[in-house]
Amino acid sequence: MDQARTLRHLLGQSQQTIHPILGDFQTGFVSRLARQVLAQHARQKETALLFDAVPKTEEQARQQPDLIEFFSGRKSLEDLVRCASPQECWVPSSLGLNALMHHPHEASSLLSKLHRLPVTCDKLYATLPTKAWELASRFAPHSDWFWLVQPTTASVTCTFQAIRRASGVCSEAQHRIIVVGGKGSDEADHVYASLLDTSMPFLTRPLQYCGFIPKTQAEEALIRVAKAMCTSEPVAMA
Question: Which domain holds residue 27?
Answer without folding.
Answer: 3-229
